[in-house]
Amino acid sequence: MTVVDAHAHGLPPWVQSAFLEWLAESGSTAEGPPGLWSSPAFDGPERQVADADLHGIETTVLTHSSNAVAALHAAALRGERRRGPADTIATVNDEMRAWATRTGGRLQAARWVDPRFVDSAETEIERAATDGGIPAISMNSAYLEPSTGRLRFLDDPAFAPVLAAAEASGVVLFVHPSAKFHLGSEPPLPGRAEHLLTGALSMLVETTLCITRLVLSGRLEQHSGLRLVFGQLGGVLPIALGRFDLIHRLLAGADADAARASGALRHLRDYAGNIYADTHSADATGLRCALEALGEERILFGSDFPVTPGELGRAGALEVLRGASLPTATLHAIESGNARALLGLGEPLTVRDKGAA
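^ thats the sequence. predicted structure below, dont judge the formating
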């Protein structure tokens, strides 16, 4: 059993409890249907390991999902004392990092970073690089400003010091969509159809927007050492690279002004080397497209557990991956080798494969 799952989620019990209480009291569906967040595995490392054993997962990398901002906010306002953002974030990160010791290295948590709080973000980045855990941080691709309704993507100028700190420290940046970007449709779709649209398409577009804005704004040129891991094969990036190449050439040939403008625009394909993507929710066709566009060394296995139950995100996804007629070396790289190299995980742990028993 050597598979590394590079896309899973967890929260300390006091944070998960506060978040579920807030969902029940508020009736909010802003984070999607509340049932998405109800698995007891979210705050249970033993349940996390049990599901990993069942599906042949050696090491699970825990990052933060689209609900992170809401969950930490709910937790900060509840309990015996109210906490400020920096205190809440640091406490959550320290508790989650401790899961590695508690599980013999089976659960490895990235430190959560909120770029809206620059001092806290820089502190957490330094800790991620030096505290003995995996050198990785976790962020959302965009942050909603409630007062204005504006989404601030990672290229926001105010976030520049955070990207600079991440590059300087050498940490890996896991980026998860916020699910706050919505493809507008009028009239609104009925019932849960809007949630389906958000999960199935808007989140993919949000991820792709985050990547393209980082490139076109010049952020990835300024911070060329950044290594970013995006979920769901990087959104629609793999199939969009050719389209961006075409539009770049069209603009260059339109007229002199357009040629000067297009000359200042970055080629999206030139920055594919900064981008890693996980396999969550991919079918065999999408997987092959991502492999060709990004390269086999940049694709990691990811399940989205426990938002996506193990039988879907792990058993089903591994079946798709192993049935995609990939070369053996490519399959091993995706299942394990790429994540080990990126995160410095070292040799496989000695774990009995209960799923094969």
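The CA atoms of residues 231 and 278 lie 5 Å apart.
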